[in-house]
Amino acid sequence: DAGVTQSPTHLIKTRGQQVTLRCSPKSGHDTVSWYQQALGQGPQFIFQYYEEEERQRGNFPDRFSGHQFPNYSSELNVNALLLGDSALYLCASSLPGQGAVDTQYFGPGTRLTVL
Amino acid sequence: GDSVTQMEGPVTLSEEAFLTINCTYTATGYPSLFWYVQYPGEGLQLLLKATKADDKGSNKGFEATYRKETTSFHLEKGSVQVSDSAVYFCALSDEDYGQNFVFGPGTRLSVLP
């Protein structure tokens, strides 16, 4: 049973560019959350997708957008990249009906570097 | 808003030493509390949790007790091993926050043989 997978593993972009990160949830999970983890800091919640809609959003600008597909996989898009967007982007999947948040399983992350 | 504070690292210990990593939180509701561990190159893994006051979470020799009166959830282990070297994150989940996590900044632990 595959866990949460993310691609690519590493990515280098320049300021002003756009980037798309991808996440495949754990088998049987239908909810995907995205987190940003800056170097030396804890992850910060970006948003959560369920039934192909953004269900909840953290304190991130509109440059950060996402999408969820019918197979529950998800994309995170960041426009007009800034140096400060350099971070590890984590995807977590879960079953919403479980209620207990510890059913969120985290992927290994995508390391984004903005030059 | 909700927040989590952890002791700053890095923490360096010798094998078999006693470990304490302090964690305190601020929340408007009655959150669940968690410790996550991140090994190099790997994703976050749930280490233990506690969902209400006075609950004790435990796993792999690690323990933490939910102290509502001091808003704390300190992580302890009686005898650390080299394999425990990792970054440890304290986190909370609050119904008011839609059950997503608020993480602390993390504490890096290095255990020397």
What does the model show?
The complex is a heterodimer of chains A (115) and B (113). By secondary structure, chain A is mainly β. Chain A is 0% helix and 50% strand. In chain A, the strands form 2 sheets. In chain A, strands 2, 4, 5, 6, 9, 10 and 11 form a 7-stranded mixed sheet that branches. In chain A, strands 1-3-8-7 form a 4-stranded antiparallel sheet, with no helix packed on it. In chain A, strand 4 and strand 5 form a beta hairpin. The mean pLDDT of chain A is 91. With 113 residues, chain B is mostly beta strands. In chain B, strands 2, 5, 6, 10, 11 and 12 form a 6-stranded mixed sheet that branches. Chain B has a 4-stranded antiparallel sheet with strand order 3-9-8-7, with no helix packed on it. Chain B has a two-stranded antiparallel sheet with strand order 1-4. Classes of the chains: A mainly beta (115), B mainly beta (113).
What's the mean pLDDT score of chain B? 92
Query: What distance separates the N and C termini of chain B?
Result: 41 Å
Count, helices of chain A? 0
Strand content of chain B: over 45%
Number of strands of chain A: 11
Number of helix segments of chain B?
A: 0
- Alpha carbon gyration radius of chain A: 13 Å
N-to-C SSE series of chain A? EEEEEEEEEEE
Radius of gyration of chain B: 13 Å
- Report the span from N to C terminus of chain A: 37 Å
* Helix residue percentage of chain B: under 10%
- List the uncertain runs of chain A: none
Question: Uncertain spans of chain B, ≥5 residues at pLDDT below 50?
Answer: none
The class by helix and strand makeup of chain B works out as: mainly beta
The interface involving the most residues is between: A-B, 25 and 23 residues
Q: What structural class should be given to the helix and strand makeup of chain A?
A: mainly beta
Helix proportion of chain A: under 10%
What is the element string of chain B, with H for helices and E for strands? EEEEEEEEEEEE
